Amino acid sequence: MSVATPFPPLIVGSVKLDFPVVQAALSGYSDWPMRVIARRFGASYTLCEVMLDKFLIDLKDRKRTSHFLHISDDEHPVGGQLMGAEPEQFALGAKKLVEAGFDVIDINFGCPVKKVLGRCRGGYHLSQPQIALDIVRKTRDIVPSAIPVTLKMRRGIDDSSESRDNFFAILDSAFDIGVSAVTVHGRTVKQGYIGPSNWEFLAEVKRHVGPKTIIGSGDLFTPHDCLNMMKQTKVNGVSVARGCIGNPWIFQQVRALALGEPLPNPPSLHEQRDVILEHLLLAEQLYGSKQASIVMRKFGIKYSILHPQFELVRAGFASSKSLQDWKAILHEFYAQDLPGVHPNGRMHSAQKSCAFEG
């Protein structure tokens, strides 16, 4: 999908994206089916769920694990996100992502989950600039020059002056090493997902780096949020995370708003049903029938937010155990082509407990 909008293309090294709204890496969610559907609805770029370097290095060519690195021709460009603790091993994991066919390699220095921090991964690296930059350097060295390396960061471990200094030291040096773009989430690692994302900090970061590419992240639950972040902070693009789980229409809607068009109506129940069925079929193709119904349960819960009877629909999806259960739910709640609802605050509150973004 390519349309002219007031917003310039998003440039990530050798990758030029026609629209500056992308789908973030989401642990436990942004697998191949989710990414394909996001692209079909207007996401200019998607990232796979974050993977551990050690897992990739040890990964064998087996059917039960093949879904982790599955890419199809219709989803390029697609990014592979990586997390780890030790620079040499991290670089070898990045090499595996390149060999799998990912177009961009994204380094995760943002994950705030306690078990990740306890193993010196993700956001923990913001507390140790030297090791963080060694990871960046070794990753950039091993990844072919034609493939961009990007970085995902939070605005620091906490709100201390030392944390702030570490953030900017890593940011500046990462660009010097050759990182093509940096995604900045406006919360600290200590915050997790509590409290608002600090968009003023994103604006400060963009002013600081000048023409370099900064992608903003945090509190993007509606298409208006996406445009407002770009207008208020002047970041080059935005990365939609929890706000697009079960709502791929957000990408279509933000493109319409960017063209000066009114906000499209929320998808009707038949439109929702068709996309849920498509998602289900893609999951079945990737995981097999038995596993697909289990994997899709968490997605069904998120799709239910757009249904006017979302509590009943959510309960149905949450208890589904087979593809037959799925079809029964769709037959019961999506038979009539009634209007859907915009998620707005409902999605924000419901998404608080979902899996972490990369």
Distinctive features:
358 residues, alpha/beta, nine-stranded parallel sheet, two-stranded antiparallel ribbon
How would you briefly describe this protein structure?
The chain is α/β, with parallel strands linked by helices and 358 residues long.
Annotate the secondary structure layout:
Blueprint: E1 10-12, E2 15-17, E3 21-23, H1 32-40, E4 46-47, E5 51-52, H2 53-58, E6 78-83, H3 87-100, E7 104-109, H4 114-118, H5 129-142, E8 149-154, H6 161-177, E9 181-185, H7 199-209, E10 213-217, H8 223-233, E11 237-240, H9 249-258, H10 269-287, H11 289-295, H12 297-303, H13 310-318, H14 323-333, H15 344-350
Parallel strand pairs: 3-11, 4-6, 5-6, 6-7, 7-8, 8-9, 9-10, 10-11
Antiparallel strand pairs: 1-2
Total DSSP E strands: 11
N to C succession of SSEs: EEEHEEHEHEHHEHEHEHEHHHHHHH
Cα Rg: 20 Å
Distance between the termini: 25 Å
Alpha-beta classification: alpha/beta
Number of helices, counting only DSSP H or I runs of 4 residues or more: 15
The helix content, as a percent range, equals 40-55%
Shape, principal axes of CA atoms: globular
Low-confidence parts lasting 5 or more residues at pLDDT below 50?
348-355
- Note the beta-strand portion: 5-15%
Mean pLDDT: 92
Question: What is the makeup of the main sheet?
Answer: 9 strands, parallel
Architecture overview:
The protein has 358 residues and is an alpha/beta fold. The protein is 44% helix and 13% strand. It has helices at residues 32-40, 53-58, 87-100, 114-118, 129-142, 161-177, 199-209, 223-233, 249-258, 269-287, 289-295, 297-303, 310-318, 323-333, 344-350, and strands at residues 10-12, 15-17, 21-23, 46-47, 51-52, 78-83, 104-109, 149-154, 181-185, 213-217, 237-240. The strands form two sheets. Strands 3, 4, 5, 6, 7, 8, 9, 10 and 11 form a nine-stranded parallel beta sheet that branches. Strands 1-2 form a two-stranded antiparallel ribbon. Strand 6 (78-83), helix 3 (87-100) and strand 7 (104-109) form a beta-alpha-beta unit. Helix 5 runs parallel beside helix 6. The longest helix has 19 residues, at 269-287. The radius of gyration is 20 Å and the shape is globular.
